[in-house]
């Protein structure tokens, strides 16, 4: 059985757990915190969580793992099969990861752990986040799902990216990162009702 190495405070671990639940793939969880120990770096080369342990070996990076899950079990695909629709979903996911989530994370230490970041970092984060959100706003479909008519991986990235980015933006800049995107807010509210996400949120709240 596939084992997910990760921790419940990690939005990426939770995103990945949602992928397993959506696809109905059995799995076990192994509690691991990000670390730089040699034996963990052999499994996840940046020392990040999550990674998975399969019979063939370890895989890190949430997107690579989600893609692997679609290949080992085509039921309930996380990514569309049509080439263009698939590429557009991945485009949306990449912008969310690179231009929203990673940018917001520059202020993670202060927003979540109370360790101040410099004014330069704050200013650059606010500026770059505005740009990233504009890109995201141009691409997101909400028709009714993030990348189009079907639920998929892009929706899970929306839900778990903004789960973190909203908290950081609120704490650092005192504003709602989704204020100009009410349709994304409604999507997130609907996603919160999905069985996979409810299961994860309920377990994490316990
Ligand atoms: N690109 C990675 C990001 C994973 C990630 O950032 N995980 C966080 C926890 S949510 C982590 O391990 N952080 C520790 C670190 O950055 O060293 C993925 O897609 O899985």
Query: Biggest sheet: strands side by side, in what order?
Result: 2-1-3-4
User: What's the Cα radius of gyration?
Assistant: 17 Å
Helix content: 55-70%
Q: What is the overall silhouette? A: globular
Question: What is the CA-CA span between the terminal residues?
Answer: 25 Å
> Which sequence of SSEs, written as H and E, runs from N to C?
EHEHEEHHHHHHH
Question: Can you identify the CATH class of the largest domain?
Answer: Mainly Alpha
Number of helices, where a helix is a run of at least 4 consecutive DSSP H or I residues: 9
Overall structural domain count = 2
Listed once per kind, the bound small molecules are: glutathione
- Beta strand count: 4
Q: Can you summarize the main beta sheet? A: 4 strands, mixed
The structural class is: alpha+beta
Q: What share of residues are in beta strands?
A: 5-15%
- Please name the CATH architecture of the largest domain: Up-down Bundle
What's the rounded overall pLDDT mean? 98
Q: Could you list the spans in which at least 5 consecutive residues all have pLDDT below 50?
A: none
The name CATH uses for the topology of the largest domain is: Glutathione S-transferase Yfyf (Class Pi), Chain A, domain 2
Task: Walk me through what this model shows.
- The protein is of the alpha+beta class and 206 residues long.
- The mean pLDDT is 98.
- The protein is 58% helix and 9% strand.
- The chain has two domains: 2-72, Glutaredoxin; 83-194, Glutathione S-transferase Yfyf (Class Pi), Chain A, domain 2, CATH 1.20.1050.10.
- It contains nine helices and four strands; from the N terminus they run E-H-E-H-E-E-H-H-H-H-H-H-H.
- A four-stranded mixed beta sheet has the order 2-1-3-4, with helices on one face.
- It is globular.
- It has helices at residues 11-23, 38-41, 62-72, 83-104, 108-113, 119-139, 153-173, 182-191, 195-205; strands at residues 2-6, 27-31, 51-54, 57-60.
- Helix 1 runs antiparallel to helix 7 (153-173), helix 1 (11-23) crosses helix 9 and helix 7 crosses helix 8 (182-191).
- Bound molecules: glutathione (GSH).
- Glutathione binds at residues 10-12, 34, 47-49, 61-63.
- Glutathione (GSH) is lined by residues 10-12, 34, 47-49, 61-63.
């Amino acid at each position: 059985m596939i084992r997910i190495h990760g921790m419940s405070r990690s939005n990426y671990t939770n995103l990945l757990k949602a992928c397993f639940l959506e696809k109905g793939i059995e799995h076990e969880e192994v509690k691991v915190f990000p670390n730089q120990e040699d034996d963990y770096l052999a499994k996840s080369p940046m020392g990040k969580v999550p990674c998975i342990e399969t019979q063939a070996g370890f895989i890190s990076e949430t997107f690579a793992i989600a893609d692997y899950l679609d290949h080992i079990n085509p039921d309930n695909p996380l990514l569309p099969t049509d080439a263009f629709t698939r590429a557009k979903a991945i485009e949306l996911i990449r912008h969310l990861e690179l231009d929203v989530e990673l940018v917001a994370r520059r202020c993670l230490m202060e927003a979540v752990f109370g360790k101040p970041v410099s004014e330069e970092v704050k200013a650059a984060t606010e500026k770059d986040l505005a740009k990233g959100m504009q890109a995201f706003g141009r691409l997101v479909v909400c028709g009714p799902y993030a990348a189009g008519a079907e639920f998929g991986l892009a929706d899970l990235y929306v839900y778990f990216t903004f789960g973190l980015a909203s908290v950081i933006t609120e704490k650092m800049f005192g504003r709602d990162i989704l204020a100009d995107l009410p349709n994304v807010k409604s999507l997130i509210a609907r996603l919160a009702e999905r069985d996979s996400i409810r299961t994860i949120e309920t377990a994490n709240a316990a």
